[in-house]
């Protein structure tokens, strides 16, 4: 028994030394091609690692990549070495490898996208104290990591205002994924926004317990719409596909039906298309692209907010509503803008939790 | 909601949810009745869901409003061919049937995602525009009580699923083909002695299961998720497997079990708006389908009798 334990310990030491050894060599490499990465534009390079969603997930990974591309374009950088680039993670096991890979390729700033990467960013940051990293949707307390959070409740508040102003039946629905703090922020903001317009409106809240079960979203939406709800806000990822499917079905059956869905994270206009009409009222946006651009810009100007947590709300244009493409009339839009202004000015604070 | 309103919501929702499960579970019945374990139902559903969406997106301009039905056919054919892998491995090469089934599951997801990436250059497909929609049955919808229960807001695919369940029951129990198929699963050597080609029967059974699971997957993707991504089929194949066992390897039993799952699922969603049940914390409602399943399996159906030769490859001449 002791022999086996000793063997295990020995192999652990060996494994650890290989990993640590790898860290050591790459520093030298870094010094080696540091000067090679210079560009006539600005001397700054930035890259990101996606979580398992992939770079075209129609959600925050895609948004982050769009932010990097916009930043690159603005500063005359090209995709690849010395400019901007991304690596996709196929599973949780890829986070560390991908982060290491990008740091080794001498990117000045490396983003980890999504709260799933919190542990990986933390680990790599402590191994490479001289490199700059950033994480979206989570907090990593290291002096060389910039953390980015969003005030989902403020965007959801506007979604709530929009829903309350647009509803005809005075009944609104909220479909949540899992009952976790992030989703509760969506719910709290949404409820608060509805209440601010008309406290008599009833909000039907239901959590489906999953982010990837479209059939649950569909049945839930079916129940809500058949009980008189006319607008549903979903914060449920793939489960929300079912909400869209149900709304589109009602709209196909009766083109005059007054049913709407409010999308989440990115502009979900495409999801709502039914022939020539659309069931997407608007979408609550989380502007990961804005955050990625801002942090990159600060880092390029040598003002990298290492060790700090930056929170993006309405005032920073980090959250907001998508273009409704005419679904919301202009006078209603003006009212929504007023509420937005109140929040941005700090007149109204939106709670993070449901009372 | 009044009691009747709840009922008018529950029953159609349960049937709609159950349709893909019914078809896949019946596929499983065919395969396992012939003595081949089919854990690969999940993977076959994935293949069906993917082919359904792919066909629908590609040929929507050719077939117009009927595209979704043509896509079902395409999904059936491709999934049946895909299940040949399982048949070859487990019948001809006598590989472990569970391992081969698991391989089907892993391969299907990986292959389909790879193809999505190759064809569309992104992580999931676009949304299909032609899809299965609810309709009302003319005249019958006017029947009091039963009208709103069964003939309003129903899917033709549900009718198809129930129809196939009845058909499968007739085929398995009242035709020579069905008798042979069951004989091969119970006692392959006796069947062989009577001149039945065991290998051929098992190939046919596995391919039927592939075809039906393919239709099930395509129904799901074209009526519920409307696109294909890594999480489109996420455990439904295993639910179908459970329904098959719950239904004691009988087509009608499997259908009943799938409907029961659908009913429990719908109940967990509607529960929040019922007067007494809304007091219960929502987590209990969410686990309700699974608790009901365990209770039903443990308490009410008694011993499940699997086909005798299930899981054992048949080797000619070996005693």
Automatic annotation (TrEMBL), chain A:
Family: Belongs to the BMP lipoprotein family.
Subcellular location: Cell membrane
Main location: membrane
Membrane topology: Lipid-anchor
UniProt cross-references to InterPro entries, sorted A to Z: BMP_lipoprotein, Peripla_BP_I, PnrA-like
Protein name listed in UniProt: BMP family protein
Domain of life the protein comes from: Bacteria
GO cellular component: plasma membrane
Secretion signal span: 1-22
Keywords: Cell membrane, Lipoprotein, Membrane, Signal
Automatic annotation (TrEMBL), chain B:
Subcellular location: Cell membrane
Lineage of source species: Bacteria, Bacillati, Bacillota, Bacilli, Bacillales
Record's keyword annotation contains Signal: no
Keywords: Cell membrane, Membrane, Transmembrane, Transmembrane helix
GO molecular function, one term: transmembrane transporter activity
Record flagged with keyword Chloroplast: no
Protein name: ABC transporter permease
Protein's membrane topology: Multi-pass membrane protein
């Amino acid at each position: 028994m002791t022999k086996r334990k000793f063997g295990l310990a020995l192999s652990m030491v060996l494994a650890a030394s290989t990993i640590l050894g790898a860290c050591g060599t790459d520093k030298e490499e870094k010094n080696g091609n540091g000067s090679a990465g210079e560009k006539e534009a600005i001397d700054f390079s930035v890259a990101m690692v996606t979580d398992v969603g992939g770079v075209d997930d129609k959600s925050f990974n895609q948004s982050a990549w769009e932010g990097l591309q916009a930043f690159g374009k603005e500063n005359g950088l090209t995709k690849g070495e010395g400019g901007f680039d991304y690596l996709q993670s196929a599973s949780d096991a890829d986070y560390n490898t991908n982060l290491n890979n990008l740091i080794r390729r001498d990117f000045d700033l490396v983003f980890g996208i999504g709260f799933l990467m919190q542990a990986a960013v933390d680990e790599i940051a402590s191994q490479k104290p001289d490199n700059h990293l950033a994480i979206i949707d989570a907090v990593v307390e290291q002096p060389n990591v910039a953390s980015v959070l969003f005030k989902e409740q403020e965007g959801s508040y506007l979604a709530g205002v929009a829903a309350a102003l647009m509803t005809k039946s005075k009944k609104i629905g909220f479909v949540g994924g899992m009952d976790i703090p992030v989703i509760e922020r969506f719910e709290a903001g949404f409820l608060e926004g509805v209440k601010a317009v008309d406290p008599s409106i009833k909000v039907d809240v239901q959590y489906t317990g999953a982010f990837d079960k479209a059939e649950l979203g569909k049945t839930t939406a079916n129940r809500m719409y058949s009980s008189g709800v006319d607008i549903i806000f979903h914060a449920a990822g793939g489960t929300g596909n079912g909400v869209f499917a149900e709304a589109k079905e009602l709209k196909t059956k009766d083109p005059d039906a007054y049913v709407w869905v409010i999308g989440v994270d990115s502009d979900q206009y495409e999801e709502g298309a039914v022939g020539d009409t659309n069931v997407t009222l608007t979408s609550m946006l989380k502007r990961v692209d804005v955050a990625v651009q801002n942090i990159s810009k600060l880092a390029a100007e040598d003002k990298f907010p290492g060790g700090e947590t930056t929170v993006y709300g309405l005032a920073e244009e980090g959250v907001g509503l998508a273009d409704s493409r005419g679904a919301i009339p202009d006078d209603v839009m003006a009212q929504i803008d007023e509420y937005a202004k109140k929040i941005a000015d700090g007149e109204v604070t939106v709670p993070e939790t449901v009372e | 909601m009044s009691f009747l309103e709840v009922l008018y919501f529950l029953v159609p929702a349960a049937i709609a949810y159950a349709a893909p499960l019914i078809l896949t579970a019946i596929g499983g019945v065919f395969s396992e009745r012939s003595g081949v374990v089919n854990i690969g139902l999940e993977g076959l559903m994935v293949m069906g869901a993917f082919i359904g969406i792919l066909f629908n997106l590609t040929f929507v301009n050719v077939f117009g409003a009927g595209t979704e039905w043509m896509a079902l056919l395409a999904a059936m054919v491709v999934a049946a061919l895909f299940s040949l892998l399982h048949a070859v491995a487990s019948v001809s090469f006598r590989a472990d049937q569970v391992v081969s089934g698991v391989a089907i599951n892993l391969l299907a997801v990986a292959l389909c995602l790879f193809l999505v990436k190759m064809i569309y250059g992104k992580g999931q497909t676009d949304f299909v525009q032609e899809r299965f929609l609810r309709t009302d049955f003319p005249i019958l919808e006017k029947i009091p009580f039963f009208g709103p229960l069964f003939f309003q807001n129903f899917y033709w695919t549900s009718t198809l699923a129930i129809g196939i369940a009845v058909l499968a029951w007739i085929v398995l129990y009242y035709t020579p083909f069905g008798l042979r198929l069951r004989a091969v699963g119970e006692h392959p050597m006796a069947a062989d002695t009577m001149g039945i080609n065991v290998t051929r029967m098992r190939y046919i059974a596995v391919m039927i299961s592939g075809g039906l699971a393919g239709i099930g997957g395509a129904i799901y993707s074209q009526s519920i998720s409307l696109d294909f991504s890594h999480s489109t089929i996420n455990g439904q194949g295993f639910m179908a497997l459970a329904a098959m066992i719950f239904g004691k390897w009988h087509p009608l039993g499997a259908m009943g079990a799938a409907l029961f799952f659908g009913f429990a699922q719908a109940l967990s969603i509607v529960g929040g708006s019922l007067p007494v049940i809304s007091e219960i914390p929502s987590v209990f409602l969410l686990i309700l389908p699974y608790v009901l399943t365990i209770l039903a399996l443990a308490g009410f159906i008694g011993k499940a009798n699997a086909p005798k030769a299930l899981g054992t490859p048949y080797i000619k001449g070996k005693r």
